[in-house]
Amino acid sequence: MTTMDGRIWSKLPDHLLEHVLSFLPLKTFLALRSTCKHFNSLPFTPYFISRHSLPHSPPPFSSLLLLSHPHFHHSSPIFNTTLNTWCSLPLSFPLMPPSSLLLSSSHGLLCFSLPSASSFLVCNLLTRSLCRIKFPTFPFSFDLPTLVPSSPSSPTNGYKLFMLSTTGSFHHALVYSSSSGSWARFPGPEPASIINENHHQKGVLYSGGILFTTPEPFHIVSFQLESGGWERPPIDLPDGLAFMRLAGDGDRKLYLVGGVGASGISRSIKLWELGEGWVEVETMPEMVCRKFLSVCYHNYEHVYCFWHQGLICVCCYTWPEILYYKVSRRTWHWLPKCPSLPDKWSCGFRWFSFTPQLYASV
Predict the structure, then answer these.
(1) CA 273 to CA 290: how far, in whole Å?
(2) Who's near 82: CB < 8 A, 6+ residues apart?
(3) Is the peptide bond before 191 cis (omega within 30 degrees of 0)?
(4) Considering the entire predicted model, what is its pTM?
(5) How does pLDDT run across 137-168, given as a tens digit for each residue?
(6) Cα(243)–Cα(292) distance, rounded to whole angstroms?
(7) Structure confidence by residue, pLDDT tens digits, 8-17
(8) Do 269 and 261 contact (CB within 8 A), yes or no?
(9) Closest by Cα among 114, 88, 80 to 100
(10) What is the per-residue burial (b if ≥16 Cβ within 10 Å, else e) of 342-355?
(11) I want to staple 52 with a disulfide (CB 3.0 to 4.6 A). Which of 195, 215, 230, 358 is the partner?
């Protein structure tokens, strides 16, 4: 095998070199950036920005499903849904403490909690840029952290970080805006128990609000990001629900995954899409449904859902596999178990949709 003369590479025009490097997979590109200052600066060159910074263009890097678990500390297994392969992604940054916890992901950004530093960390792994956000109070307890773009139609305009906080008997909604660099406090939902007691299900961005579901009796409530108010959309829910979860693409489509049964026990799982009302799309095949219900042991508080590049992912906090529905083909599939997971594992499986994006600014 012959190697190319380095003197030829050194004379290659910059725009051709940048064009070649733009086709590298994410893992290789991240490793390459540390070799020299020129490669480290490539994501910020006019060529890369013009090629990859359009919000509605196809993602320049693969779309990934990221697995967070106590067994994995400064790296995380990722499943490439384009190539159908597993690999590992480094999640550590300089001075990041071991106690850091991945909380949420959105439009190329990841949000971590740093309890020992009383702060959150929002970062773009592709550009290695980050922003540390101090807790609004100390001590600070929070729930349902949800990272969303400030404008779903133009995610380059920054992001917002939503969460609920409890101080004594008072409940508050707190929103951090990257554009102002400050926190805003709003009244919490009434009654306070209106938000789903399932801590694994994050809010779903839809029509200018972040949607949540309530414990039984089931309802959908929406926190409006612009006004800071709470609304209950006048949408009748399907009958016979034993549990319900929401998933959506952030703007145009909203889905409901629900168990249907009696006395709080699901006998089947159905999928609905929001139109004029909830329109039934699919019933989960019996064998698939039977396996999933045996996995969660009817402990529905462990079940959570999210949208990922045309897939509706249905997960269980205690199980290392994802069940997903491919919307375009109307088919159900199991994602294989991560090969790097030890034979003896405990609960704590938290999945995130992650599509690296160069234009995502912290």
Answers:
(1) 23
(2) 62, 63
(3) yes
(4) 0.82
(5) 888 889 899 999 987 666 567 899 999 987 66
(6) 14
(7) 666 777 767 7
(8) no
(9) 114
(10) eeebeeebbbbbbb
(11) 358
